[in-house]
Recover the amino acids of this structure.
């Protein structure tokens, strides 16, 4: 991580997103006795966006940009031994419940000291969520050798201007994408982050 912070010319992009539909979807699943976390949902959303924006799912190999075939998403987890990142392999080919089940199993394996090297390596993109600690926005460090990392802030209820300039209360979250500018320019990174935002605001599009 120190090498990443010192050698990668990183740039951060931040935007707000409306998470009302995401909350509705999660609550609907709860009523069906299907429990998923927001991390699970963002893994699925990020995987879809990465498939559509392959430059984000890349790395430098011998000074050349290599587009990666597999979409393996790591999720940073706080443990008594520090930050550990279990990896959901081929996340773009898995449904939400499968992602949730696999992630819970890998976190449990980490806490039981039974996680394998395969559980913790091979990531192509990382998600870091500090929302549970009431952190609204932060700039994470890229997890080498990956190209990008997505930081998730807390879900906050706040007033915003509606379509007719009326004031409405929405549940909103800040997303911060940090990217390696040697690999990705600002516009492609912005388009990816915008796509993540749109999928969060209309997640049912993932299963239509």
């Amino acid at each position: 991580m120190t090498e990443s912070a010192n050698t990668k010319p990183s740039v951060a992009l931040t935007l707000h997103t409306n998470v009302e539909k995401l909350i509705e979807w999660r609550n609907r699943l709860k009523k069906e006795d299907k429990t998923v976390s927001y991390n699970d949902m963002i893994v699925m959303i990020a995987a879809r966006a990465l498939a559509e924006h392959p430059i984000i799912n890349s790395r430098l190999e011998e000074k050349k940009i290599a587009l990666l075939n597999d979409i393996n998403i790591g999720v940073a987890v706080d443990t008594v031994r520090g930050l550990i990142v279990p990896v959901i392999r081929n996340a773009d080919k898995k449904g939400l419940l499968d992602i949730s089940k696999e992630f819970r199993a890998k976190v449990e394996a980490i806490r039981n000291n039974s996680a394998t090297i395969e559980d913790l390596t091979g990531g192509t993109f990382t998600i870091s969520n500090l929302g549970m600690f009431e952190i609204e926005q932060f700039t994470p460090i890229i997890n080498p050798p990956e190209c990008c990392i997505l930081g998730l802030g807390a879900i906050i209820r706040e007033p915003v201007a509606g379509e007719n300039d009326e004031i409405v209360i929405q549940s909103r979250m800040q997303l911060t994408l940090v990217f390696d500018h040697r690999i990705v320019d600002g516009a492609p990174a912005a388009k990816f982050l915008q796509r993540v935002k749109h999928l969060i605001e209309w997640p049912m599009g993932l299963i239509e």
